[in-house]
Structures are given as C-alpha cells and as structure tokens.
Amino acid sequence: MRIARINTASGTRHAVERAGSWHHIVDPFEAPLRFTGGTTPAGEAELLAPVAPAVVVGIGHNLTLNDHPLPIQAWHKSVHTVAGPGDRIVAARGRGTVNVEGELAVVIGKQAADLTAENALDHVLGYTCVNDVTNVDQNAVDERNFQGKAGVNYTPLGPWIETALPDPERAGIGVFVNGVPKANSGTFNLPSSVVDCLVYVTSWLTLEPGDVVMTGAPGTAVPVEPGDRVDIVVEGVGTLASAVG
Amino acid sequence: MRIARINTASGTRHAVERAGSWHHIVDPFEAPLRFTGGTTPAGEAELLAPVAPAVVVGIGHNLTLNDHPLPIQAWHKSVHTVAGPGDRIVAARGRGTVNVEGELAVVIGKQAADLTAENALDHVLGYTCVNDVTNVDQNAVDERNFQGKAGVNYTPLGPWIETALPDPERAGIGVFVNGVPKANSGTFNLPSSVVDCLVYVTSWLTLEPGDVVMTGAPGTAVPVEPGDRVDIVVEGVGTLASAVG
Q1: Does B80 lie at the interface with A, CB-CB under 8 angstroms?
Q2: Band (A76; pLDDT cuts 50, 70, 90)
Q3: Chain centroid to CA A171: how far?
Q4: Which residues form the Fumarylacetoacetase-like C-terminal domain (chains A, B) (predicted)?
Q5: Domains, chain A, ranges and CATH?
Q6: What was the ipTM of the complex prediction?
C-alpha cells in the first residue's frame, strides 16, 4: 500500500492510492485506517514529503565502505531540510562539492525504544526514498555532520510511503542525474543491516511515529551541479525526483 | 517580560506574567502580543518547556576550554529529549557518567539566516535556562554527539523565556546539586560569544521561530546520580529545577 501526503482543498492530508486516485485518510499511524471519503485523482495530486518528522536520523556506516575506525554511528539532520518531490535543492555555493546520496528511509509507525532484531520491523510504518544531500567537503572539517547537512531542501523525501516492501534488506537503489545512471547499489551493500540500524538508534533514542531513519548511502553518493535533475529510485518503493538549483 | 508555556483548561497556552498571574496570549512570536483574556494564578500554573522547538542546536566550543584542535561546531539534539521544569531526567545506567550542563539557551523569534554580529540579537525572542544532560563518557567513542545526548528528558528547558535579559554575553550561570553550589560561571567564559554562536549556526542552517540554540557549558558540567535534585540558575532569567531518576 502506498501512503502519500498531499495538498487538498481542506489542507494537507495523508491519502492511500487505489485505482488511480488518492483516498484521503485521517491518520496514517492508526489501524485500521479511517477514510474521510475525499479523493484526489492521481494526476492532480501534489505530493509532499510523505511525513513531517520530528526527528530525522542519519546513519554513519563506518565498517567496510570507508577506512573509519569507529563502529556504526548516528546523527541528527535538521527537520528544516525536509523537502517534497520536485522541490528544488538549493546547492550551497563556495562550500565544496555537493553530493546527492540515494538511500532507503524508514518511517517509524509506533513508538520504538530498545528494539531487537526480532521486533524492529514491527515498529515500521513503511519505507520511502530519501536524498541525503551533503556538502561533502565539509565532513573533513566538521565531525558533527552539521555544516555538510543543513542546506535548504537538503532532505528530499518521497514520493510516498510503501508499507509492503517485500525485503528492506534487499532493496536496489539507483541514482540518476539528468536521466543518466550514476550509481546502482542497494541496501544489501550497507555495512550494517536496516534492522541493525533501527536496533542501534533505538538503543539510545526513543523514536516516535513519523520519525525517519535514513539508512545510509551504499555507494550511492554522486556529485551534482545547479541545473541538474536527480532521480533516486528505490526498488519496490518508487522514484524521488528533485531539481538542483 | 517573562513568557511561559502552561497547561490551561483550554489546552497548552503561552502566557505573560503580570502582577502574580500568567495572562494567556495567542502567539508568543507575534508583535504586538494578543491576550486571550484568560489568566492563571502564578501559584497554580504548571510550567512546561517554554517552547516546543522544531530544532535544538548545541554548540561545540573547541577553543580554550579543551584541547580540541577544531573551531566552533554545532550539532543537533533530538527534540524528543526536551523536558519541562520539574520533569525527571532519566539518567542512563551502565553507560558511564551522567553530567548535567548549565547553559544559556537562545529562543529564536523570527526566521534567521546568515545573521551578522550587528543583527543577530534582533532575531531573538528571549532567553531561557537549559540543562544539556550528557552521557559524557560516550563522547569519546561517538564523535557525532548522538549516544551522549539522546536520553529521556535530557534537555530540560525553562522555567520561562525572559525577553529583556540586559546582556546575554554577561549572564552568570550556576549549577546546584541538592542545594549545594557545584559550578559558578557565565556566558562571559564561553570561547565564542552568544552572538558568534548565532552567526555561525545561521551561516549554515536557517533557524525558525521557536528554535533553540544551546550556547554551551562554560565550565558548568557537573556529574549527578539518581536521587539528585539539580538547579540551573541563569542570572537575569531564573531557576530551572529537575529531579534525576
């Protein structure tokens, strides 16, 4: 099932896709879902970031993909950076290379503390694509990941939440710039599994419904320039498109 | 002027203190303030964290107070850690020493990007006390400040916002544990000034009304244990009390 967040005549609504329309719902985090009766034709829906998270956590994978001596880490990214499909990433000027990073994002469905490998996925509402835009040269001088990760629209999310991804540990991830494939990998290349990320994060921080965990870029960081169009494709989820300006 | 956030019969409200009562207002970020006509006697008011920030930024002062070779840095603390006056800090067990850190917190009043030394304070609504609780031993193994800063009620804020602090660069800060003075310092001991913190943070991240910048602990970190009572006193603002459990 796909859950999106869209603009409607009565304000911002979550909605479920059925037969070419988005059917408005009251609350994506309740079960069973309640439908308001309102619908928006898919072709007319303006898709927003599918959640408005209170917390966005990124994962620093420090094992096989680089030479960093530390184990898995996490860090917070400002929620002010969250953007929707189609929003323009404002690439910082004069601050080094701007990378897009294609990642699988986990959307938490219920309060999650001290998750285990056995119950972690039970706390997930679903999955979406995230583009963890980064001023990558700043990471060398800013070990806190602040300077590299705080730009305007630096966290495009979307296009929707897929609640039925068959196996989040085996989701292919592609990055396209101006339609040209630039990276082709998947969560199977992450040093720590998606489940391990959730277990680690919730061993320190209690997550709440709507929070987002960006599971890291498995070799999916690609430099971009103003004028580029970027597509992040997560297999089984969809395509998240952004302009770079 | 003191602006608090309190529980009322009609829900959570901001309020202004006058003559022993809290006078309810519509929105602390608008000028002039609009009063609803409702009041709560000061003795009956349950004070909450005086804002519900979307972003809480901490400052890493890396100049004279330690031997770190890097300049000023910033990092995000989870908003899930924000607590009100009197809330119980859940000190992590088995994860090393738990420090309280008494700091001056800046509450942003209007959107703030690329602030300058000249205009920075024009974007401030006011000041409150913050206790940046930290599992300090984790910082040695977690350069992202995630493991040390994510515990339950690890960011007590309050008791109110003081909009008329005469000079935020010269605010004394005291830390008391069980009534005993344990640290006595002030913002005048910070390696970077309060204004410099705001200039630095907004050179990378656009802050919004209600966001909080914790300006750092000028030698005001004190270890605590379950059962302790902690008071953070910021001269000209007030006293923020917390239990440690």
Answers
A1: yes
A2: very high
A3: 13
A4: 67-244
A5: 2-44 (2.30.30), 56-244 (3.90.850.10)
A6: 0.94
